[in-house]
Amino acid sequence: MIKEHSGGKSAKRRIVIIDDHPIVRDGLSRLINHEPELEVCGAAASAGDGLDLVARLKPDLTIIDLSLGGRPGIELIKDIVVRFPGLLVLVLSMRDEKLYAQRCIRAGARGYIMKVEATEKVLSAIRRILSGERYVSESVAAGLLQQLARSGKPLVGSPVETLSDRELEIFKMIGQGMSVRKIADALFLSAKTVEAHREHIKQKLNVTSSSELLRYAVQTHLDAP
Prior knowledge:
With about 220 residues, this protein is of the alpha/beta class. About 50% of the residues lie in helices and about 15% in strands. It has two domains: about 1-145, Rossmann fold (3-Layer(aba) Sandwich), CATH 3.40.50; about 160-225, Orthogonal Bundle (Arc Repressor Mutant, subunit A), CATH 1.10.10.
């Protein structure tokens, strides 16, 4: 689904929203359009439609969710950064920022904010990114500073944090009860590739069997916000 908003000439900063939940798209649009210097010029429900919309409308900022059907959100960030240099990206997601915020920043996003935050913080994040700054929570910012102090070595608070972006996506899908074949179809990979990733995940998480990995993944999924 794509929705474009036509407006008159203005100096407003233009924003595209990519989120597969209609309530989020509509609510966020109303919130942003209420601000005198901001406007939502379009909204899309999928990664593909979102990329098409960005190409046509050339906004200043795009706000994306990580949970877009059929396409990992971090891969979408990387695509946007490559295809549209200079376009600012803010991630607005329900996924745990401890696992995803730094990954999104490394992929090219300028900010990360969770959907449970107050609307004032969402607007603050938008304005700070448009002014040339980055936006993350205080706890994530502290982690980034510690990482810099340690010469770029990643901080590891949980074995799950050692997973690569692709491994984390597959681990999440395992926790949702998806089979190897369904994961492969969703990520446009071969079943053999997914199996290889699953073996790497088992090694990194120090689990020895597929059933143990499944329990670990399900518990992690249930504990996620």
